[in-house]
Design brief:
The chain is an alpha/beta fold. The chain has three domains: 88 residues, Gyrase A, domain 2 (2-Layer Sandwich), CATH 3.30.1360; 248 residues, HUPs (Rossmann fold, 3-Layer(aba) Sandwich), CATH 3.40.50.620; 173 residues, Orthogonal Bundle (Isoleucyl-tRNA Synthetase, Domain 1), CATH 1.10.730. It has 21 helices and 13 strands. The strands form four sheets. It has a five-stranded parallel beta sheet, with helices on one face. α17 packs across α20 and α17 runs antiparallel to α21. The longest helix has 24 residues. It comes from Methanothermococcus okinawensis. GO terms for molecular function: arginine-tRNA ligase activity; ATP binding. It is an enzyme of class 6 (ligase). One of its GO terms (cellular component) is cytoplasm. Belongs to the class-I aminoacyl-tRNA synthetase family.
């Protein structure tokens, strides 16, 4: 428990102050590689040795004598080992209190107090010109998992999908809808993707038609600035909303919902974009080149200049993005964006412009690209694997696995397979640190033995089965943890009680993969406990009752953790 760690740190700090009168900064605790060396260890003696010019071994022995005079809750022994100070826990009292707390708090175990701070988190934000592919899926899964974690630890979180309805890509769709008939029998985003692909091919064969794309973009922007509900505005709105209908369906199937869809065009219509240009002009950092106004950001170490408007007077995505972020950052304590690694220069430019306008800047999670073994993807040319296809294939494979194992009735198979499939996709993507490129591999995603989400879901199903059998046996309550616990029990209990700390680290560092990897660790530690410690066959009722409580606590932690990753537990596997 974090309280135990904090108490140990406080006592060490106080004793160091009493004996050596110096400030050595934060006290850090580590976990020794074996329980034989203790549960927590500190290298404070080595840090003091540099200051006091004395051997760390001697300092450690002195400190241990002083620390032993303190009554540190749940600490049964303190030893000096080669200059380190190691702390040993009284697992009977530690487990009794900790496991009881997990069971008592249930679905709220790990929940933080209200922080009274608002975060606006933007994620997914794919162009509405076709279906989401697996690359968009990485963005959406990282963003949604982070939203759930941040809310659970006490933040007020609002998620945004920033809708790019003004770029060339959407103009191509609007133009294409005049040339080609949309297939209304297909899912809307897929049908719109076909229009986009066909129109790009038409433009490649007839380059002179690019003038028409430019005209459509100019006409749409003029109508927005004049706040007209003209036919061009209706055409753009219909096209975007039709595509979003399909995109929202895909996201919903992935257990992802956004609080707000913010349209880029709002900031042209309400005058904020023109106001941003005016304010940037007043900074004295704007120069005129080639009959175009550009923002010079060399003071920020950025060589590339930001074009504020095109030669025809129309605005660019970058300027509209500044307006959106000005608005967003004014409405929250922290802004967070999830973006592909190819946006790094764009973000540098955005942040420099925001600083010129005296605005806070967003924190950005950059993620590297994800691919399938089949290769790279291109929306424009129609070479991509949609998220819908990935989910459908995952469900097909999961159904086969559930049928092979024979653990479910026929009417349950599809629902169980759906939960396994969704967990496989979400977990396999979120468990990898965002800055690492990854290849999505089916054999890893649907792995029931080592690294896949099914390992965690199966551990949960095993917990459910054990507890169900225990209810049938009508196990009587006995005093908990009044016996010498095995190492497997101790390790699992200690791992379970790390859950609140893991959530805090994962949320504050904006790294949901930390929680994901912890969940796999819980499953492996539980499997080790299950394999080495008799549960239902245990003859001693006190040990049996205690181990059932560990199983119940494991079930709760797995449910809580997977829920924060947007994953359901099938209960049967």
């Amino acid at each position: 428990m974090i309280e135990v760690e904090n108490t140990i740190k406080e006592v060490i700090y106080r004793k160091v102050q009493e004996i050596y009168k110096g400030d050595v900064g934060d006290i850090k605790l580590e976990e020794p590689p074996s329980l034989k060396l203790g549960d927590y260890s500190t290298n404070i003696s080595f840090r003091l040795a540099r200051i006091l010019k004395r051997p760390p071994k001697v300092i450690a022995e002195e400190l241990v004598e002083k620390l032993k005079s303190e009554s540190i809750p749940y600490v049964v022994d303190i030893r000096a080992v080669n200059g380190y100070i190691n702390f040993f826990l009284d697992y009977n009292s530690y487990a009794k209190l900790g496991i009881d707390r997990i069971i008592k708090e249930g679905e709220n175990f790990g929940r933080g107090r209200d922080r009274d701070k608002k975060i606006i988190l933007e994620h997914t934000s794919a162009n509405p010109n076709g279906p989401l592919h697996i690359g968009h899926g990485r963005n959406a899964i990282i963003g949604d998992s982070l939203k759930r974690i941040l809310e659970f630890i006490g933040y007020d979180v609002e998620t945004h999908y920033y809708v790019n309805d003004m770029g060339r890509q959407e103009a191509v769709v609007v133009f294409g809808l005049e040339k080609f008939e949309i297939d209304r029998d297909k899912k809307p985003d897929h049908a719109m993707g076909e229009i986009y692909i066909k129109t790009n091919k038409l433009l490649e064969e007839n380059p002179q038609l690019e003038e028409e794309i430019g005209r459509i973009m100019r006409e749409y922007e003029r109508a927005l600035e004049n706040r007209e509900d003209s036919p061009i505005v209706e055409r753009f709105q219909w096209a975007v909303n039709y595509a979003l209908e399909g995109i929202k369906e895909t996201l919903n199937n992935m257990n992802i919902q956004h609080d707000t869809f913010v349209w880029e065009s709002n900031y042209v219509r309400n005058g904020m974009v023109r106001d941003v240009i005016k304010r940037l002009m007043e900074t004295g950092n704007v120069i005129e080149e080639d009959n175009v106004y550009k923002l010079d950001l060399s003071d920020f170490g950025i060589e590339k200049k930001l074009v504020l408007t095109r030669g025809d007077g129309t605005t660019l995505y970058s300027t509209r993005d500044i307006a959106y972020h000005l608005d967003k950052m004014a409405r929250c304590d922290r802004g967070v964006d999830v973006l592909g690694a190819d946006h790094k220069l764009t973000v540098q430019i955005l942040n420099a412009a925001l600083k010129l306008l005296n605005s806070k800047t967003p924190e950005v999670i950059f993620y590297e690209f994800i691919s399938l073994p089949e290769g790279s993807m291109s929306t424009r040319r129609g070479r991509f694997i949609t998220l819908d296809e990935v989910l459908k294939e995952a469900e097909r494979r999961a159904i086969g696995e559930v049928e092979r194992r024979g653990v479910a009735r026929e009417e349950e198979i599809e629902e169980i397979a759906r939960k396994i499939a969704l967990g496989a996709i979400r977990y396999n993507i979120v468990r990898v640190s965002p800055e690492k490129p990854m290849v999505f591999k089916w054999e890893e995603a649907l792995d029931f033995e080592k690294v896949g989400c099914p390992v965690i879901q199966y551990a949960h199903a095993r917990c459910c089965r054990i507890l169900e059998h225990a209810r049938e046996m009508k196990v009587e309550d006995r005093e908990l943890f009044n016996y010498e616990m095995t190492d497997q029990e101790k390790i699992l209990v200690k791992t379970l009680l790390k859950f609140p700390k893991i959530l805090e680290i994962s949320g504050e560092s904006l790294k949901p993969h930390i929680l994901a990897n912890y969940m796999l660790d819980v499953a492996h530690k539980f499997n080790s406990f299950y394999g080495n410690c008799p549960i239902l066959k245990e003859k001693d009722n006190s040990i049996l009752h205690s181990r059932l409580k560990i199983v119940e606590a494991t079930k709760i932690v797995i449910e809580n953790g997977l829920r924060l990753l947007g994953i359901e537990c099938p209960g049967k596997m």
